[in-house]
Amino acid sequence: MNGMRLRHYATPILSALALSVAAWLAALPHARLGAVILAAVAWVWTIRLVLHLKTQDTFLGESIVQLENTVDRWASGDLEARVYLDQADPLDRLAHGMNRVAEALKERTEDLEQDKERLEAILTSMANGIIILSHGLTITLINQAAYQLFAIDAQDVMGRHLLEVIRDVAIDDAVHQVTQNGGTETVLWSPHDVDDDEVVEVTVAALNQPLGGVGAVLVARNVSAQKQAERMRQDFVANVSHELQTPLTIIRGFTETLQDDPDPDTARRFIRLIHEEATRMSHLVDDLLALSRMEHHSLPVNRIPVDLPVLIESILVKLGPRAQSAELVFDNQLPSHIPLVAGDPDLLAEVFLNLISNSVQYTPAGGMITIKLASEPGNPMVGVSVKDTGIGIPGQDLSRIFERFYRVDRARSRASGGTGLGLAIVKHIMELHQGRIEVSSQVGQGTIFTVWLPRFSD
Predict the structure, then answer these.
(1) Is 357 in contact with 319 (CB distance < 8 Å)?
(2) pTM for the structure as a whole
(3) Is 360 a domain residue?
(4) Chunked in runs of 10, what are the mean pLDDT values of the chain (458 residues)?
(5) Which of 90, 95, 184, 415 is most exposed, with the fewest beta carbons within 10 Å of its own?
(6) Which domain covers residue 134, as residue numbers?
(7) Bridge partner residues of 455 (DSSP)
């Protein structure tokens, strides 16, 4: 490059020097021929210089156009474009430098694309909903889980204000709080058009934006199951306290009366009532202990072949007097020969005893309780249904009847001496046997419980 610069400047200098020498020689009397020769040489060098400069200008112009075109292609996203110039071109070194920059940009862009793909894969697979807001509280990123948790129908939400998409003042207030004061805020959100049991926990945190300003990130997760478990725990504690408090209050009142009134007839009657209440508490404690052992899988299950028709017939005989006094009829349509099932006969007896007892309890006089074989296409299990013509179960209660202490008719259940744990025990026994129980009901027309048990195999 330096050699080219020297040659570039040497030509006009030598031309000027030659012209000067020629002028000096021309002044000498005997040197005019030399002056003419030097002047000719000077003019030749000058013409060459003009032609060279013109060629260089054309050369540079083409190189600059190529550089401009390449830069335009980079700006449009084509980082594969390169600049290739002649080694003698004065812009060749610049072209090499630009090519190296393009290679670095391409590698960096590929890395960013990979990072973006990984981030999108992570966000897509997450069960938690993620929403990122700009400093103007407009949505810049949202994953599929957020669409589902917040029941967002419109897919085109990018760039829209959060309050337009999720119309909830509590969430909007939390976002403004963290963007102004920092920290995090947590709120609970429920969709207004679904059951109140659907609860979403939203955690909002401030997020500094790369170009300045403070945005926010929202992390949402479905806590409906936790809230339901918490509600069930609270109900359980309240129900246990209530179930124990009632007989204890009665027992305490009777004992205080006995202390003040030693009358033998009164004492015998009160002692009988105290015994009944103590028995009720004993049954309650026994059921609670059984449930606890089932939940912790510490209850021994003796799986042997069980003949359901024989087992159910024995239960019907046991409950016969009670059904007769209630003016009810048992209709046992169960065939005598059905496949044996694998299970613990004592636990299975408790299942059908609970179901048939409930039917007796909630069926008005003159009703019928039918036991028959259930069938389901493609189901290898053995099914038995217990159908009554009782008062039925409201639709809003069907999903909760297997909860502990849940009673549809509290007054009738308490009057019969029930603990409210029977169906919860039935459900756990079925789970221990790898079976299942189904229920369908219609208010005023009756209820059908269907038990499915695995067949016994040698």
Answers:
(1) yes
(2) 0.50
(3) yes
(4) 46 52 51 53 57 54 76 78 73 78 82 76 77 86 85 79 86 89 87 68 84 81 80 70 76 80 76 81 75 70 88 92 92 90 90 91 91 84 92 84 71 54 85 89 90 87
(5) 415
(6) 127-222
(7) 341
